[in-house]
Amino acid sequence: MDGMATTDGAFDGLDEYCEACEADTLHQVSVQILAESRNPENAEFSREPYRVAECQRCGQRDSQRMNNA
Fold first, then answer.
1. C-alpha–C-alpha distance, residues 58 and 21, integer Å
2. Dist. CA 52–CA 46, nearest whole Å
3. pLDDT tens per residue, range 55-68
């Protein structure tokens, strides 16, 4: 063994609490860049990273702004 971490490709999400299911369930988690301005002229200047988690049981999506500057 060479001491390096390996993965078998089986990772498909994270267990997190889902308020709709009232239980820990598998969630697909991603980071998305979302425009906060509804004005098309300013949209390119209002993009922020959000953590988006979607429950794989019921489909509920939650997003949280990652940069609170």
1. 7
2. 18
3. 999 999 999 999 87
